[in-house]
Amino acid sequence: MSVGVRESCGKALCETIERSITTHAMVATPELISCLTNSVDLSHIEKNQAQRAAGMEMLDFTQQLISGVALGCVYGLIALGFVLIYKATEVVNFAQGEIMMLGAFMSVTFIATLGLNYWLSFLLCVIAMAILGAVMERVVLRPILGYPQFSIVMATIGLGLVIRALVGIIWGTDDLRIETPFTDGVFTVGKLVIAWDALSIIVATVLLCGALYAFFRFTKVGIAMQATSQNMLAAYYMGIPVKRMFSLIWSLSAMVACAAGILLAPITLIHANLGFLGIKAFPAAVLGGFGSIPGAVAGGITIGIVESLSGFYLPEGFKDVAAYIVLLAVLLWKPQGLFGLNAVKKV
Amino acid sequence: MVHRVRTDYGDSDPLFPSKAAAFWYAVLMAGLLAAPYLLESYYLSQLVFIMIYAIVGVALNILSGQAGQVSIGHAAFLAIGAYFTAVAQKYGVPLVLYLPLAGVFTGIAGYLVGLPALRLHGIYLAIATLAFAFIVEEIIARWESVTHGNEGLMLPPPSLFGWKLGSESFYYLCLLVTVLVILAAINIIRSSTGRSFMAIRDSETAARSMGIDTARYKTTAFALSAGITGIAGALYAHKMSFISPEMFSLAVSIDFVMIIIIGGMVSLRGAVFGAIFMIMADPLLIILKDRIPSLTEALTHALFLPDAATQAIQAGVLRVVNAPGLKSLIFGIIIIVFIIYEPMGLDGRWLRVKAYFKQFPLARQRSARPPRMFLKSERR
């Protein structure tokens, strides 16, 4: 039995006792006594149960941990998108969640409407989103390069509103689902049950991180992107086409977001509010320091675990805000995030 | 842009820039005072909403426009003010007391939010305010003994000195509060506090090296802005006469930021312009929605298109017009267009139009073009 349920049981019991005290105390003492003995009995039984259930609780804990890690990987992938864009262009893209949603809806068109193979559709979606990402950068972000950060943030919020509205107009507001190779399958280790979809997300995150690492480490474009994000002006002097790098970064970020959206599709249905997950990924990015790629994934997994465990062990309502409470606490303790660099801007 | 020649220090920031301006403000005031006798109740109620939004706009102008701190969680302060009002009214506190107290209480909340803001800037601050807004929304939804959770709270009509305020007298109350708030904001901006805000906005490091206590002024900006928003929240609660947590969601915070983005962040006038735009956009959109199908029909007839094409176009137009997300689509486009093409907002456009007529035959487009902006890195 979870702590939350046990607490509420105790609370209800106390309430009945109190009520009987206030209403019947003078008349019905036997009732009161029975009530009290009941409570003693119950707590005794509960203690025994707790001992027996210790093993079960451990299993519960592991189960929650795994689902938290899977959810956290999705947050981490969205946060990765934030971080890629922020690192290169110092723009925080509030439309990241909506871009992820757009990717997921696109997969609906490819898989459910056109009836294509899952893997082929995945590839087509990612390519389509890469193009769209570059277009968004060119149309919305390029003209306002160098504006105050506040304005740029608002522009990306506007972009998010536009994407969400367009998705609603094109695909409607119903919940949609796609058939994936990971739907409904489970994988058991002893008593532990792991769903295929959760596992697929974890594996895909590891693969994607490896691919991104290799990209930034070994390819010419990747190194040029790194240079751009470290010092734009110096990169420009070295002959790196900085503006094209920005478009490429947006493509890359949209691709990562699209992958996250399609991987998430079997767990949550595809609907127009999926974009709000992007806001949940902010704490992840901030925890990771907003400039570090491993930090983003680590932050995402932390947030996922915190959310999943607080949903299981804490009273209702904590699940939705746990991520933000952790975020505020971390910001108070380390204003630059856990992996962030402490830099003071010169005049 | 036209710049005035200043001959002494007192000249640099008068309450009214010129006698003509004072005259026109007096005319505006007279018009607003006469409004209940001239306008239908629907427009009067829209005016009240405009004033409430304008107060929030002024609050955000102080925080973002003057002190350069970002907040995308101002709906939380509105909520705190509104719920404070509802609870205070329930316990029989008179309006003259709880209206300013709502401001003070929310101001204290703003001060507490401002404390982490001392160590954060730019994007971290924006996200911290966002997190704060979510937490406040959740607390309101869960603290059922006080707030009645998602069921919401009903507010009886406000009463001043035992006299129940109807819609007209409530309009005058809002007008009074708005004017007071704007006057107070003008005076804050031209005081040394306001100058310190601007110094912090332009360069925090430079401000600190000039001897400005940046920590103190940043929290002051937050407290002031939150307090003003709290007063707006009190009026909002009375105007709606029903409050529930979903009335203070993220979308509302974004609406508030749109006020100053569209209106312009440079002056308080922008906050009022932005408020007018945000409130009047809704009825305008509804009117457009009704007119567009008949307009397209007329257009297709005028172009002598075949019937099949006409029907297809009609169906397409109807689908777009009746789509549920149309409003947010249009608002999203408006935000982007304003930021790209009109970074100074409606206020900047207004100043340019004025300058054009002032320098009439000599005005050139280039003289009004804003200076080019370059990427300022936040990194070393």
Task: Give your account of this protein's structure.
- The complex is a heterodimer of chains A (347) and B (380).
- With 347 residues, chain A is mainly alpha-helical.
- Chain A contains 13 helices and two strands.
- Chain A has a two-stranded antiparallel ribbon with strand order 1-2.
- In chain A, β1 (186-189) and β2 (192-195) form a beta hairpin.
- In chain A, α4 (96-113) runs antiparallel to α5.
- The N and C termini of chain A lie far apart (58 Å).
- The two termini of chain B are 34 Å apart.
- Chain B has 15 helices and four strands.
- Chain B is an all-alpha fold.
- In chain B, a hairpin with a 2-residue loop joins β2 and β3.
- Classes of the chains: A mainly alpha (347), B mainly alpha (380).
- Chains A and B meet through α6, α11 and α13 of A and α5, α9, α11 and α14 of B.
Features:
heterodimer, A: 347 residues, mainly alpha, 13 helices, 2% strand, disordered N terminus, B: 380 residues, two-stranded antiparallel sheet, globular
